[in-house]
Write a structure and sequence with these properties.
With about 90 residues, this protein is mainly α. It has a single domain, classed as Up-down Bundle (Chorismate Mutase Domain, subunit A), CATH 1.20.59. The protein has three helices and no strands. Helix 2 packs antiparallel against helix 3. The chain starts with a helix and ends with a helix.
Amino acid sequence: MKKEKKLHKYRKKIDIIDNAIFNLIKKRTKIVKNMLYLKKNKKDIVDKKRMNLIFKNIKRKSIKNNIDPKITIKIWKSIIWSYIEYQKRNFKKK
């Protein structure tokens, strides 16, 4: 029973973190929407140079903070490509 209580306690902590992540995604989505209106061409949506810089920084921070970089890079790739797809779906020619 003691392990179940601990597990429940940790799951509650994860739920709090997940709610914080959700709110950050909500804020990020608003910013991405605003950025989309500034892009003149659909090709402006993907910036490989910026993406590589982000992944390099995430890897460095992960190593420094003793987090497996494979996890963090995979998460960031998923976030970035999800927003790229979102922008492509919602891009309107000007």
